[in-house]
């Protein structure tokens, strides 16, 4: 029996090559897309879950409340971990992680740059048990001036991971001994690093500064409990800890605000809400929902295609059903046969889909910045694929099975006609649904593109174009004394119009500091973002002054007593006369506001502009900014590089253009747009295959009518219009449904941006027109084929 079913199924597939190809190819495209999306979503939701201690680890986040202002920060106090662990026996480990950005490291005379280095405690690898290729995780960070490298970093420096223990690396002014090499799988942890250094290696003066100030929030703290339940019920004890240690400190320094701590589960970090100063590898969970919905859409459309194609070709199988019923076959047997055929086609499509997915995976990894791979022995993937086969096989096969098995033998054998179907309305509804989905995706792609174009080209309130940024080698004490000479040399080039420096550049995550403010004889505490700048920073970046003046060498006290704030600070804090504001802070600055600058977006357009204070740097800052002319750009960069090699022989030049670096903040959206666009195109292609099926069905139903119309003088164009007008109506109905859905959905997505576009009406109309054009092209192709047939043959057909 099964052999008979399989024989019939394969015969029907080979007999109807075009229809079978459309079925199998359409399903294969849809299933391969779903496999890729499934792997992406699974990877995103799996961050940190491979850590065997994941359910017992929490990150400590901070709430800093000051004079009507509350900030939630990913950082917490340096003293937290060493103070809290001895007091609570339920804590197994408590560690600090202090990340620092791109760093230069020497091995002998060779120079290397590591993208992310962090300092941490000796039991770091007890909390995050990375696999050690060499070294002992229990002792690797026990001693000062020890460093553990990732496999990638070790290969970069030494070309191997073997026999590297004990080698000495130079970082800043100290030498560090390699005590371990770990394997760090990509896309598995929110914590990314290329090297970990023992936190006991920190310079003693800096360490003393950190220990003396509970409000110095420059690192993250992680707590691992003995059991998950202990962590779930620890918040009350954490509040008591704050009252015991933080509250007295705040009273001692007469701080009116409050600092409180909260526990964030490790597995919530990657897809959690964005927190200020978070260095974690994060993603927006909304993107996972969007891609998951697209996967469901693709599966739905693929199933509808099969149903439409099966019913479209039902005329050719009506006589088969009649003969089989006359020979004694029951309806149940026929249903089993047709569902079996559907399952067979689905299995063939899945095999082809796995091949497509394997071929497309490198491109998909490049688009999503992942390192995914298909493990055919993965039981989760196997269950997913089996579920897809059963879902598509039964969902797409059950309607044709009941429809075809319902033919009456006397009707299809005696009259040689296919029974009239009462389910035409259902097929039209399915096509409307398909194109509603397609139009929503087209409009969504347009809106995402418009928003990305807007954020990348919006006037940010400062000039970020043609600004070449060089990271200053602050660890080289000799370079600091050469900076003014280097600046002078740069300015000798007529294509360089300005040179300045700052501790951060727009687009990079800056720092905040507690400012003690006096205004109208009232004392306040304000946490404000800070930016240390050179004299001509404001002028070179063309940031307009709203009030007061810029820093000036004519006022020697500016380097200790001058503050420049932005308009948002004055408005948000109610400083109607900002020049009356007096400020002092723990950095030794004490004076008043000398100027107010116009607001400029120094962070991404996801966030509104926050209060900012600029202070004049007393020494060389972290970044040197060089304004260059667009003409002769290549020669100008070569000139800068040559001068740099003269003034900095030990440190290579680390550089980038400010506008390109600034736009990296939208990398997640750029990736989403690209992936979204690819899957939208695939969805439209699959929907068009479904439309082709319905057009084929319509043409087959009206074969005799078309022949008679041609005999009566109708041209090919008349026939095409005759068949196409019904589908135009379906697409128009789909547009009416899709337009409000797309508008609502994209407005929800745009809420993630503080600065956003208003969705233009033309983008909605273009989405509908594009869908209409694609539908017409698809239907016209099938209509042309029907209209081109010999009318004599068409009339004889029925």
Count of DSSP H/I helices: 25
Q: From the alpha-carbon coordinates, what is the Rg to the nearest angstrom?
A: 34 Å
**Total individual domains:** 3
Question: What general form does the structure show?
Answer: elongated
How much of the residues is beta strand, in percent? 15-25%
Helix content: 40-55%
| Low-confidence runs of at least 5 consecutive residues | none
Major sheet details: 13 strands, mixed
Assign the structural class, choosing from mainly alpha, mainly beta, alpha/beta, alpha+beta, or little secondary structure: alpha+beta
Mean pLDDT comes to 83
> How many beta-strand segments?
24
First CA to last CA: what distance?
34 Å
Short account of what is shown:
By secondary structure, the protein is α+β, with helices and mostly antiparallel strands. It contains 25 helices and 24 strands.
Topology:
Blueprint: H1 2-15, H2 17-45, E1 57-66, E2 69-73, H3 80-84, E3 91-100, E4 103-107, E5 110-114, E6 117-120, H4 124-127, E7 131-135, E8 146-150, H5 151-158, E9 168-171, E10 174-183, E11 195-198, H6 204-211, E12 220-225, H7 228-232, H8 235-252, E13 258-265, H9 285-312, H10 315-326, H11 331-368, H12 379-405, H13 409-414, H14 424-457, E14 467-471, H15 477-491, E15 496-502, E16 511-519, E17 522-533, H16 537-540, E18 545-548, H17 558-561, E19 562-566, H18 567-572, E20 582-585, E21 590-597, E22 612-616, E23 623-628, H19 633-647, E24 655-657, H20 658-663, H21 667-701, H22 703-711, H23 716-750, H24 761-787, H25 791-797
Parallel strand pairs: 6-11, 8-10, 17-22, 19-21
Antiparallel strand pairs: 1-2, 1-12, 1-13, 3-6, 3-12, 4-5, 4-9, 7-10, 8-11, 9-10, 14-23, 14-24, 15-23, 16-17, 16-20, 18-21, 19-22, 20-21
